[in-house]
Structures are given as structure tokens and as C-alpha cells.
């Protein structure tokens, strides 16, 4: 009789512990899933920022080039290229 109560008590304790562990496991899987989604979002954002850096670098290089100065002089100031002749 006493052994039956001990076995029953141990079974109940094991069931409670297993339930708690399953709850913790589900919570951790949910947390891992959320972190993976956040990681994917950040990777996308990083890729976008890297592309912006490349674009700005290319634009900056163009703005510092001789071609930009020639284009600016021709389009804004109405000047031609060196040794160009205009007939009106």
C-alpha cells in the first residue's frame, strides 16, 4: 500500500516535471524562431546598406572626376570641352 502511494507520487511528480520541461522547450523554440526572423531582417537591412554605400561611393567618385567637371561646365555653365569650336 505504501509502495503504491510512493509510485503514484513519483509518477505525478514526473508528469509535472515533464509538462514544465515541454513548456520551456516550446518557449525556447518560439524564441529561436523569433531570433531567426530578426536575423533575416537584419541581413536584408545590411544588404541594403551595403548597396547604398556602393552607390554613394560610386557617386562620390563621379563627383570628384574630370568627367563630372566637364559635364557640369557644359550643362550648367554652357561651356564646351577643351578645343571645341562652336558655330552660330
Which helices and strands, and how do they pair?
Layout: H1 2-63, H2 66-75
Pick out its properties.
2 helices; mainly alpha; 88 residues
Overview of this structure, please?
By secondary structure, this protein is mainly alpha-helical. 82% of the residues lie in helices and 0% in strands. The longest helix is centred in the middle third of the chain and has 62 residues, at 2-63. The N and C termini lie far apart (119 Å). The mean pLDDT is 89.
Mean pLDDT: 89
Distance between the termini: 119 Å
- Spans with pLDDT under 50 lasting ≥5 residues? none
User: What is the beta-strand fraction?
Assistant: under 5%
Q: Sheet with the most strands?
A: none
Radius of gyration: 36 Å
Oligomer class: single chain
Percent of residues in helices comes to over 70%
The structure class reads: mainly alpha
The topology string of helices and strands comes to: HH
Tally of individual helices: 2
Which overall shape is indicated by the principal axes computed on the Cα atoms?
Answer: rod-shaped
How many runs of DSSP E, i.e. beta strands? 0
Amino acid at each position: 500500500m505504501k509502495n503504491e502511494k510512493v509510485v503514484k507520487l513519483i509518477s505525478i511528480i514526473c508528469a509535472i516535471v515533464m509538462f514544465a520541461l515541454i513548456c520551456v522547450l516550446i518557449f525556447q523554440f518560439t524564441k529561436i524562431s523569433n531570433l531567426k526572423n530578426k536575423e533575416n531582417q537584419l541581413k536584408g537591412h545590411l544588404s541594403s546598406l551595403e548597396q547604398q554605400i556602393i552607390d554613394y561611393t560610386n557617386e562620390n567618385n563621379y563627383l570628384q572626376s574630370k568627367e563630372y567637371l566637364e559635364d557640369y561646365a557644359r550643362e550648367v555653365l554652357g561651356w564646351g570641352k577643351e578645343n571645341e569650336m562652336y558655330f552660330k
